[in-house]
Write a structure and sequence with these properties.
Layout lengths: L1 E10 L2 E13 L3 E6 L6 H14 L3 E6 L9 E5 L1
Length: 79
């Protein structure tokens, strides 16, 4: 498991090495994005989808810890 993994962005041949930072990457294939918000917004899911596209990982879990039941705060996204 890796924490605060930097995900580079390459745009028109220009590499920006510190563009994004994923919270956790497990086994090199699953990204965990941790939140504690009232409501999971579409922008949070779009952020995770961007991380998936740039990292090459296929599965992402958006986990919102501001829920009475944790199972209600888990959103699975796949590429």
């Amino acid at each position: 498991m890796q924490r605060q993994v930097r995900i580079p962005l390459i745009y028109k041949g220009l590499r920006l090495p510190l563009a994004y930072s994923a919270d956790l990457i497990v086994a090199g294939s699953v990204i965990l994005e941790i939140k504690s918000v009232e409501i999971v917004l579409p922008v949070h899911k779009a952020q995770l989808l961007t991380y998936l596209r740039l990292s090459g990982c296929r599965i992402g879990l958006l986990m919102n810890f501001n829920e009475p039941l944790l199972k209600n705060g888990i959103h699975r996204l796949a590429m």
